[in-house]
């Protein structure tokens, strides 16, 4: 048996499967860790030497279901349970 063409035909098992956190096919079945996001570690895997990689995974690259409403709430002082004051119309000078 050689270590070339004949050996490559025997490779039909998958070392990586889908990751629950990032959705990529980077979860190593034996190591039980994701090569892309680092799951099951609490912190997402990212490095300072990868500028484009950080840009893809940073805040704002997803839906931001909670964070996109914060700017509006901050503008109104995080008020809750009250009714907004009605806007007064200008009195027309005649």
Per-chain topology:
Elements: H1 5-8, E1 16-17, E2 27-28, E3 33-34, H2 51-57, H3 70-75
Antiparallel strand pairs: 1-2, 2-3
Describe the structure.
- Helices cover 18% and strands 6% of the residues.
- It has a 3-stranded antiparallel β-sheet with strand order 1-2-3, with no helix packed on it.
- The chain is of the alpha+beta class.
- It has helices at residues 5-8, 51-57, 70-75, and strands at 16-17, 27-28, 33-34.
- The mean pLDDT is 92.
- It is built from 3 helices and 3 strands; from the N terminus they run αβββαα.
Structural class label: alpha+beta
Order of helices and strands: HEEEHH
Percent range of helical residues:
10-25%
Arithmetic mean of pLDDT: 92
Distance between the termini: 101 Å
How many helices? The count is 3
**Going across the major beta sheet, what is the strand order?**
1-2-3
Task: Characterize the overall form.
Answer: rod-shaped
* Largest sheet report: 3 strands, antiparallel
| Strands, count | 3
Radius of gyration: 26 Å
Unreliable stretches, pLDDT < 50, 5 or more residues?
none
What percent strand?
5-15%
What descriptors fit this protein?
single chain; 94 residues; alpha+beta; three-stranded antiparallel sheet; 3 helices; 18% helix; 6% strand; rod-shaped
Compact overview of the structure:
The protein is of the alpha+beta class and 94 residues long.
